[in-house]
Amino acid sequence: MKTRITIGHEASGKPVEFDVEELLATRLLVQGNSGSGKSHLLRRLLEESAGMVQQVVIDPEGDFPSLAKEFGHVVIDGAAYAPAEIEALARRIREHRASVVLDLDGLEVEQQIRCAAQFLTALFDAPREHWYPALVVVDEAQMFAPAVAGEIAEDTRRMTLSAMTNLMCRGRKRGLAGIVATQRLAKLAKNVAAEASNFLMGRTFLDIDMVRAADLLGMERRQAERIRELERGHFLALGPAITRLPLAVKIGPVRSGMKARAEGLMALPETAPADMAALLTTGLASEAAKAAPPPPPPPAPRIEEVEESIAAAEERHAPQPGASIGTSAVGEQIEAIIGDLAQVDGIAFQSASAQYQTFLTRCRRERLIGPMPDMQAFKRRFAVAGAGLDGLAENIQDQIMQLSEGVEEDLLAPFLVIAKAAHAGETQVDEDALARAYGTASPGRIRRLLDHLERQGLIVVREDFGGTRTVLVPGLAGEPAE
Prior knowledge:
Layout: E1 4-9, E2 15-19, H1 20-26, E3 28-31, H2 38-49, E4 54-59, H3 67-71, E5 74-77, H4 83-96, E6 100-103, H5 109-124, E7 134-138, H6 141-144, H7 154-170, E8 176-182, H8 190-193, E9 198-201, H9 207-217, H10 225-228, E10 234-239, E11 243-251, H11 273-281, H12 284-291, H13 303-317, H14 327-342, H15 352-365, H16 375-387, H17 394-403, H18 412-423, H19 431-438, H20 443-455, E12 460-463, E13 469-472
């Protein structure tokens, strides 16, 4: 089977070829300022290799849906699907080897990042029997693997960095070959850029980007000026899939996509100034009146406001305080409701807000009157109940909760499961119980959870060559298992 494609030509007219099979093993990094021809290069690469290998494109700017008409790619509108549906789509894409474009153009920046991160993670976590070779192209990669924290939420940044690092560092064994394109090397996380062995460097002007590009190409720093002088559509190439020595290449034409707009100057209209003024101002008021949008509907009330109004109405119809149960009894009933809720099948797979709403609904059904735990207090009590700490002695509960003070809220429930097992002298993790507490069915997420807790110094993980995993909790005195 043919594995080489032509991406362009040298100045002498000699074709420059790209070994797609080698690319699957070595990955690719593309850099160039806006207007340097990055998207044109990616399109050329995708078009020429379309019949050879599965292709998955993460497209934040809506540049690549036109591949569908010419080459049969399936376009997925990221704005049309819920997070769980995006993950399910990714699993089906790996199973059926579909070439797709994930179009994120209809989303806000942070939504784009979260959607792409969940999509890439699901591709990475696909079952072993679906590890088919695929090119995964990420345009504007500095958004999805930022070198420094920006304006996005910290949990979003951690999620997207983890997804991109897995793609570039560990994706090869799963058949995933990352191709990342960025405007600024300095804005791209170094651990993502460092995993590429092939490079196509386009025009860039900032010294810091030129120096990094020259270092990656193996050029002396005084030669970095050459990168500033590159014309549009011209790139310096290096890597085992292209060439062993730096080589200047002009990217060839493409068949799909919109034609570039005409560059340069255009003659201005020859309309007289008075006529131009009339064109701009005549009937302006009536046009503005017609164009005025209807007044927007009043905003929907927030969920919290609806809940408060429902609670207030119920309290008005509830028995008088003198006839209601005592405060201690209310607390006991609240604990009982949380305990029962923690045992419901599948409850851990719901979001914390959904769990809290279910809890409030049950409290209203029981017509409980009194102070309710807020979201933060509920999450901790729900985690304690789900882990079964209620059955332990009070001093052991206090010890475990003290050790859990530094644990992130989303990871508290699985940590408590581990701590309870460690106290009982069990050194092997019950991964089913851990998965239920964490709300996941992905072995990959469980592995990353344990890795994260170990990096935080909360647990110690040891794995032998047979795959048996031993987990200990430092500072927790365990009882020998019988």
